[in-house]
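User: Design a sequence. Structure:
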């Protein structure tokens, strides 16, 4: 799928995608196995096998015996009781069962009504409907007056992780003479670390680390031996970043995979110098922003009403109703760029174009950083329009109350 040539045989070792243990099932080419890419657990990115974390498959392997019966059940909606609280978990059905979603939902609602009657409990049906729409796989309490997921997350226990995680790849030190790739820049340290971890768990490994530069957190891959190796790795990263499963976090500020000849860091004190001719792969064009022009930041009139774009949005934060749009693919935005529904963009009536904002769905606490590059929405009582890709990431399937926070202008940036 990424265009990589796959070998006929992968020997045992750290690069084997099955991990250290594998158990064959009665179905041809279907296994229960470990993995050398733990971040992929829970994603539908494999041939279809059941993947377990390396430490979990080791325990199961020792307990399982040849001939043990195994049942694999596809069940998108799950309910469970814990401490007198009823929980619901909803997942999107696998593609070949999408047509059964309506039937499965009706069956779930019927079972919940039976539970409500039998246990004499009151169920928050609006919350049930919202959980089904979001289908984010998070068990959520559904009894009347139960806390929402944002409140639960706020009171969650923080786990202490060991300094070295199980089978964590060791990333070599970058020296002044090494080549490297500047992959992305975030304003969130955790998001940067997530991307670096994904790259470190590729097979073969793409060594990466996150470093802090002023108020940003950069993800830098390397060391590499020469420009040829850098170009090959940049193409691999480009293919990885195109895959939707690798963008579960808020959209980073991609820097076009700029090649660097490092005069880097030990203490990350100085920024690595750019090459005279930086290599920017094709995918960077999707994130290009034309030079700031005053035309799309001047007052304008729609349906007889004049809107006045802000000269400065510093400190701007507002709550209101968000909607999404996704059927205008290819249309020109107010900035003149092509609208692509899968990208993380938005329309706002008065924010300066182009700019970055954080949008938080107040129903579930999910947030995403988007590029504001268009004007709208022009329906009454709407605050912001999100692209379909952005709306999907925060579980917005129709209208929802959101909070938007201005993060800065992108005028003049590529």
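Assistant: Done.
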């Amino acid at each position: 799928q990424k265009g990589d040539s796959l070998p006929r045989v992968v020997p045992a070792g750290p690069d084997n995608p099955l991990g250290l243990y594998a158990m064959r099932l009665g179905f041809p080419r279907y296994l229960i196995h470990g993995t050398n890419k733990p971040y992929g657990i829970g994603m539908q990115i494999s041939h279809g096998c059941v993947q377990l974390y390396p430490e979990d498959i080791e325990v199961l392997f020792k307990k399982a015996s040849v001939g043990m019966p195994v049942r694999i059940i596809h069940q998108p909606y799950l309910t469970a009781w814990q401490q007198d609280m009823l929980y619901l978990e909803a997942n999107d059905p696998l593609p070949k069962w999408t047509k059964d979603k309506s039937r499965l939902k009706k069956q779930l609602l019927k079972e919940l009504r039976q539970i409500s009657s039998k246990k004499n409990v009151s169920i928050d049906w609006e919350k049930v409907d919202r959980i089904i729409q979001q289908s984010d796989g998070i068990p959520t309490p559904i009894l009347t007056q139960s806390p929402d997921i944002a409140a639960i997350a706020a009171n969650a226990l923080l786990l202490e992780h060991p300094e070295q995680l199980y089978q964590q790849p060791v990333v070599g030190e970058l020296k002044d003479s090494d080549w490297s790739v500047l992959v992305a820049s975030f304003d969130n340290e955790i998001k940067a670390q997530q991307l670096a971890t994904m790259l470190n768990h590729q097979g073969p490994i793409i060594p990466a680390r996150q470093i802090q530069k002023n108020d940003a957190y950069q993800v830098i891959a390397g060391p590499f031996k020469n420009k040829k190796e850098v170009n090959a790795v940049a193409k691999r990263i480009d293919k990885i970043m195109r895959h939707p499963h690798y963008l579960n976090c808020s959209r980073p500020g991609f820097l076009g995979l700029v090649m660097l000849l490092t005069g880097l860091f030990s203490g990350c004190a100085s920024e690595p110098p750019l090459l005279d001719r930086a290599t920017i792969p094709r995918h960077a064009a999707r994130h290009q922003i034309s030079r700031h022009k005053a035309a799309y930041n001047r007052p304008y009139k729609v349906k007889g009403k004049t809107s006045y774009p802000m000269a400065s949005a510093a400190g701007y934060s507002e709550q209101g109703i968000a909607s999404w749009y996704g059927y205008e693919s290819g249309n020109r935005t107010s900035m003149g760029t092509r609208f692509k529904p899968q990208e993380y963009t938005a329309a706002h009536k008065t924010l300066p174009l182009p700019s970055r904002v954080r949008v938080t769905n107040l129903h579930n606490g999910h947030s995403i950083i988007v590029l504001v590059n268009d004007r709208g929405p022009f329906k009454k009582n709407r605050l912001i329009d999100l692209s379909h890709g952005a709306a999907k990431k925060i579980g917005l399937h129709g209208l929802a109350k959101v909070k938007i926070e201005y993060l800065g202008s992108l005028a003049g940036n590529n």
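The longest strand covers residues 400-409. Residues 247-256, 262-293 have pLDDT under 50 and may be disordered.
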